[in-house]
Amino acid sequence: MELQEKIKYLSERFLSEVIQIRRHIHAHPELSFEEYNTSKFIAGKLTEWGIPFRDGIVKTGIVATIKGKNSSSGTTALRADMDALPITEANEVEYKSKNTGVMHACGHDVHTASLLGVAKILNELKNEFSGTVKLIFQPGEEKAPGGASMMIKEGVLENPKPDSIFAQHVFPSLEAGKVGFKSGKYMASTDEIYLTVKGKGGHAAMKGTYVSPLLIASEVLLELENKFSDCKAPTVLAFGRMHAYGATNIIPDEVKMDGTFRTMEEAWRTEAHRIIGDMCKSKAKIMGGDCEVRIMTGYPALINDEPTTLRAKKSAEEFLGKENVIEIEQRMTGEDFSFFAQKIPACFYRLGTGNKSKGIISGVHTPTFDIDESAIKTGMGLMAWIAVKELK
What we know:
Helix content is about 35%, strand content about 25%. By secondary structure, it is of the alpha/beta class. The longest helix has 25 residues, at about 5-25. The protein starts with a helix and ends with a helix.
């Protein structure tokens, strides 16, 4: 039996077990950097299967290693994130979250279960491929500064240093059994914008005795919208939260506004930060107030290495058939896998998890998100195949 057929066979053979792994993780979600029980569960499975690993990286992170023949001939890395979101699950399923207010609404349970499936497959076949595979179980993807950046600082990409790294992410708008790839610039950088617009409070009926920070904030928003609505580089500047603690007849002293800035161009990102600060302060000053600007720099843009992505896409076409591999579009969401992509050639691709006929259509970050669990077979099988192809 050819190696590809063996991987497909083992993917089918291990599917029910890996589905149960996914359901256990889904039922016991933990927030970013709090994945202690998840980490223990992963460590337990790796121990049971006789796969060596190192835990305690950024407290809950784990790196397992599978060595094939001639293990020093090359190394590739595979990554899965483990954290959940502060969302109350609305699904009525047997594996519904048991942790009130916490839910795997972004599919990280699928990523972790799939990578454990990959570990079991490759461990069975370690005498049939060359090189070394590093399996990275990462905490804190959903929370800045991002578990990827912290694991890198703790040496996850050393001893040995991988030649390439791959990760997959659930994609509910794509049917289970299919995957999607995008070379080059794929996802945006993610920065948080915090504005404090200051005026002078007072009684609403006493015109001329106060400077309304609400009016200043409104003008600031309009000016920013006009400036950033037609940029040459892909750009998002949007504000989703505003607090003004006044009343119907009370003008407050200040207004707080929180938003996000996203782009795919680092030079423009730096320049935009300066423009935002200058515009906010200038507009507020003209209107008799002031504006404090704090910009928290988040994840960089995710850029898929083109040769690495093309190889992975070709491997996917071999494994799944060309009809099940699609080209996906650039998007303005963010992902801390971008930190890995800054260090070594990387490919971040999408795993179809939807099934319209079964009503599995909810998007990520929603309380009704779920997957067609047949996608897990695709997830672990394809990732195992990509790894061994990368090491040939």
